[in-house]
Amino acid sequence: MSSSSATAKRKSAAQFRCAECGWTTAKWAGRCGECQAWGTVEEVGGAATRSTTAARVAVPARPIAEVSVESATAAPTGVGELDRVLGGGIVPGAVVLLAGEPGVGKSTLLLDVASRAASHGRTVLYISGEESEAQIRLRAERIGALRPRLLLASETDLGTVLGHIEKSEPDLLVVDSVQTIASSQVDGSAGGVTQVREVAGCLIREAKDKGLATILVGHVTKDGSIAGPRMLEHLVDVVCQFEGERHSRLRMVRAVKNRYGPTDEVGCFDLNESGITGLPDPSGLFLSRMTEPVSGTCVTVSLEGRRPLVAEIQALVSECAGGAPRRATSGLDTNRVAMVLAVLGKRLNIPLARKDVYAATVGGAKVTEPTADLATALALASAHLEQTFPFRLVAFGEVGLSGEVRTVPGCHRRLMEAARLGFTHAIVPAGTADGTPTPENMKVLEVSQLYEALHAALPNTPA
């Protein structure tokens, strides 16, 4: 066989695979044809044919009713808001991935979790690949997290990390972060697709073999997705997103994936100088402290997971100084605010097209669900008419382009939360109270059109 034909045969046997999704192709491509990721297609050699023979079974299969569930019982972390999201705590052998933007407070939260676990007699190993031991010690002193059973190591080599695990035999492992650890047995720099896959795979095997509860910190990209291969989210048991604005003390943890509990729970935290504390009742953070009613404000009730949160929406309408009118929003969906403005102008004849309009939430809250449409419309109308609501009012409902007010899920929970905070009137979509008891000392006004809601909130509005 000539050398040219042998080379052609080797090339035909070569195969390329995407490190993100596993898509294969016979030729190299700069962009994956399946997940559309750039620079993830790598050569994996020829597609050799292999056969796998049956192996000896060490533990025979048994009826599902005879399987013990004690090993899957969650152990509380001591942080109530995090336990709420995880489904009661961390299951031994489970691997939790906590992702968030830089500076949001991931390390502070996990250091507090490690301290609480160590205070209850559990051995905790905290591995940091980003900070020195002295830096972590200073943070621990600031938040009161110094515990004898809290072991600390600053390492970036995977083999050394595994050695620490063998020597200390911890009950809880915290790795901050998985993108800073690298294996000398794998090519590539720390944080690369290959390295992250190897590091995560080894740590997950250790967790499963030893029944070791493990928390991994993950970085995020510019668009908010978790850095590294998508496979990382499939390998771990729980994926949590840690969210928060830099100018706000409020932090939220929500589960994106959870094999041991719900994915519709949200934990709220307050990040301050002395550390991070849970907020079992965060609704008061999103309300203003004004004693006198002010035009342009309306309160709504949003649902974060299954938790109702009362948030105040403020609006300001002013004369346009010239040029194109300005539209500025903070904490609200800009597109939905623009839609509400169009509905007010077309269906209620409220001329806002040539006005500067500003709409924002109080306390850095993010209210992006369509439920806030009705409160946004009432706040804008109140700001334009310069009229205040004559009673403590909440409003929620989705506003359609024809001006109808549509029902939203979780109405009963929203009303109960508003009543608990002392609101006396609620404007809700028609049919909300059908078959559901309304809170005492609260008058519920059902509307089907936006103009009905406006006249119910502002009785002196001209027809």
UniProtKB/TrEMBL annotation:
Ranges of residues in domain RecA family profile: 71-220
Pfam families associated with the record: AAA_25 (PF13481), Zn_ribbon_LapB (PF18073)
Keywords: ATP-binding, DNA damage, DNA repair, DNA-binding, Hydrolase, Metal-binding, Nucleotide-binding, Stress response, Zinc, Zinc-finger
Gene3D superfamilies, per database record: 3.30.230.10, P-loop containing nucleotide triphosphate hydrolases
An annotated Gene Ontology molecular function: ATP binding
The keyword Repeat belongs to this UniProt entry's keyword annotation: no
Binding site for ATP: 100-107
A biological process term (GO) from this entry: recombinational repair
GO cellular component, one term: cytosol
Ribonucleoprotein in keyword set: no
Region of interest called Lon-protease-like, as start-end residue ranges on this chain: 356-463
Chain span(s) of sequence motif RadA KNRFG motif: 257-261
NCBIfam families: sms (TIGR00416)
Domain commentary: The middle region has homology to RecA with ATPase motifs including the RadA KNRFG motif, while the C-terminus is homologous to Lon protease.
Stated family: Belongs to the RecA family. RadA subfamily.
Free-text function comment from the UniProt entry: Plays a role in repairing double-strand DNA breaks, probably involving stabilizing or processing branched DNA or blocked replication forks.
Protein name (database record): DNA repair protein RadA
Record lineage: Bacteria, Bacillati, Actinomycetota, Actinomycetes, Micrococcales
Gene label: radA
